[in-house]
Amino acid sequence: MKVLNYLLAYRRFLLIVLTPLLLLPLPLIIKTKEAECAYTLFVVAIFWLTEPLPLAVSALLPAFMFPLFGIMESKEVASAYFKDFHLLLMGVICLATSIEKWNFHKRVALRMVMLVGVNPAWLTLGFMVSCSFLSMWLSNTSAAAMVMPIVEAVAQQITTAEAEADMLEMSYSNGSTNLALELDENVGECENSDWTEKGKQVNGYDNDMSSTVCTIEKENEKEKEQNLPPAETGRKSREDKYSGIFKVMCLCIAYSATIGGLTTITGTSTNLIFAEHFNTRYPDCKCINFGSWFILSIPITVVILVLSWVWLQWLFLGFDFKSMFKCGKKKTAREEASAKVIQEEYKKLGPMSYPEIVTLILFILMTLLWFTREPGFIPGWSSLFPKYKGYATDSTTALVIGLLFFIIPAKTLSRTSNGESTAYGYTPLITWKEFQSCMPWEIAILVGGGFALADGCEVSKLSDWVASKLTPLGSLPLWLIILISCLIVTSVTEVASNPATITIFLPILSPLAEAIHVNPLFILIPATLCTSFAFLLPVANPANAIVFSYGHLTVMDMVKAGLGINIIGVAVVMLGIMTWIVPIFDLYTYPSWAPIISSNSTGL
């Protein structure tokens, strides 16, 4: 038993040591550059999937393994760790830092919720739209962390308002205030016991005595329900409904934070990794940019968001069209409470401050410059520099705007009652320390490791060997190949991080498309989108973990809801890639910018 305990305690260390040793026969027996590159790829991929080391640390392994194997020189490997992607990421993080620092995100979220109203279904949709909009420009984790406290405040206010309304209702129906209070105390005791039991299960332990007590209490509750007055029976049914509403509100934040990130090329790290991998592997193709990605993904995002909203409503509340679309009826206590807390939170923000206005202007300017660089249907601003075609990219725009956040002062001159101007010390909108605290350096190094692996596969001819072995898959229907790749990445991303998953599969799927003579975008776009579909478990996605930590959900709640949204997501992506995305990139034509793979193959 002690040996087993030691193995469990040192399992990460054993994995670090045994993985390279067990795979060592590959380069020792098959003494080719392809085998040596494959050995490095397998070691790094296993470390990324199991995470015995931090992801960024594992990503540094190619930096010394490739030079030792003679695959690439050290300076060549080092150049792969900082590319155009990193400049784009830095510019976007400057914007995100300013948005978070000056609370502009909170104003946007509250305003959107106020626009849709406080009807249960529309309130949920309002939170989903606001959270998904924020996640287009910020990280999914940041979007969930920003909106979730607002959701929690609304939920707490709903609980308080409904408890007061129930006490009054029971008091009127029974003719005694004391009786109502006594009933409320009894119910409170049962609720506390029930919540305690749920908390113990979430924390990974269970107490037999607590389970027995809860079981007895629940049985007693069923017996009491038969003799309860109508007001109390109605209160119990409302409690179940509100519990479902809280679950829906929590899940909508977790899922919309991920769904919204699909919309823009900068919305999630997987999109950025895909864009850099694609532009590096196919430099002659200029079709993937901010505008083209937005056009292909916005219908997918909207459809998935709406269907997810419908699915969550049906799963936890039932889809009651009458209550959803009721007009002109008096608001319930819960709806009044929701409206009150949202309006109070918005009033606390006060009028828009000078830093918020500047941040909004720079945000709009960055977005417009991204869209108008190479819109496709008309000449963009990049055509103003015909001698330097292709020199400016989305990262150029991001860096120019990002630099302005370090230059523009955060405070203006203010006039005193005497009419004199008071000068403050010069402080920019964001400082370097604030930028550093928001910059995801781990993701930056992880992506660099992925680029290094991709370069190593090209130099060692491993990618050519993989392509030759994948050629027989061309006999399968194209839609089936796409579906299989989508299902594989969706399954892997539930247990591995999204950036690690996409970094592993892009160098595999690109040769696959070339081998079967299919436009690489036909396979890479749906695989990239499906890599973000980590909806099943709290640990599958940081946004899921943040929402789960509030205690309103169980693991089974998330599994049930996430399974349905995974199916919805894959189905919508398949629909999109076979219909409206086809004419955008002329997917049924094998492009001139993709290499033509010969039938001759090399062996390891």
Describe it:
This protein is mostly helical. It is 72% helix and 1% strand. The protein has 29 helices and 2 strands. It has helices spanning 2-9, 11-23, 25-29, 33-50, 55-59, 61-69, 74-80, 84-101, 104-116, 120-137, 140-174, 177-202, 208-227, 230-261, 269-281, 290-316, 321-324, 333-349, 354-373, 394-405, 432-438, 441-459, 462-470, 478-492, 498-515, 520-530, 542-548, 555-578, 581-585; strands at 414-415, 421-422. Strands 1-2 form a two-stranded antiparallel ribbon. A hairpin with a 5-residue loop joins β1 (414-415) and β2 (421-422). α4 packs antiparallel against α6, α23 (462-470) crosses α25 and α26 (520-530) packs antiparallel against α28. The two termini are 43 Å apart. The relative contact order is 0.13. The model is unreliable at 176-226 (pLDDT under 50).
